[in-house]
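User: My instructor asked us to take a sequence, write out its structure as tokens, and then describe one feature of it. I'm not sure where to start. Here is the sequence I was given:
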Amino acid sequence: MRIKWRYMAIMVVVMLVISSLTAYVAYESVQRNRLGYIGVEVDKEVFTADEDVTFQLVSLTRNARFNITDRWYMDQEDERNRGFDVLRVPDVMDPETFLDDLSSLDYLRSRSTFFPVGRAFFDHFDSRDGSIRIAWNGTVAEEGWNENGSFLRYSPAVSGHYVIVPRSSWSPDMKVSFMINERSMFYYDSLNIDIEPVNHPDDKLTLGLALRAPPGTAGEISCDLNLSLSYFGSPFELSENVLAFHEETGIILSEGQDWVRTLVFNISIPDHGYVPNGEDDFRNRYFSPLVIDVVLTTAVGTYITGLSAIWDGGWEYEYQY
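Assistant: Let's start with the prediction itself. The structure tokens for your sequence are:
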């Protein structure tokens, strides 16, 4: 009997051990499969051009486990597919309500890789670290081409409101989700280039420009302006595509004082798009984008900015950089 009871005691202990191991394995499995939420939070609301923009990735989900890199494809070092995008919020959008608007979310999802954006990189982020700080150096990357193929050219960013968004969710099993909110936005105070297109439907287009030197500029700086504008008109009839340029040299800028120009272009943009000849169904309307690019060459760097927008009783920006 003593042997039998001893045998039963051993069996009970073994069963308890197995139960504990099973519970532990189940717990570990749950933790490994838990979705990890990551906050993207800037260190302050306003940064100036003489400092890096710093922000943190913060693990928001207790006990969720992940370890991510900033590479879209794990084996690829190409900067086009890495890191965070720092996107300019279009001037026509209210930065305080930008992320509350569904059209703004579409704007973030459909952003193109063919216009300049800021880029910020990191090596890896483990949930056990809790948080990690990342810096953006205040430049935007523009893709260029030469005989060797494509390359990225970096230029200093202009003033404006910006939002930080991930280029991709790098976890191959998609176990992380980034939380983009008002804490992911900031104002960057740099050289200012305001572009204000004003459409006079079926008549002409006027373009207001306002330039101002970066904060902290001592004295005056000289710069050269190169502006290009394109508009392709109606696809339903023969029309001349518009490609216009404006250049000025020796522009003098100083801190706290705007240099202002108003340009007039002979471009006829209809109030509500183009429709095929003989049709009155406005559901088939076509909108031709107005594309403006500005290059400002100064002694402290070459600044680039621009926008693409369509007119439908008011401007709808496809992008601004």
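For the description part of your assignment, you could build on this observation: Confidence is low (pLDDT under 50) at residues 16-32. Try explaining in your own words what that tells you about the chain.
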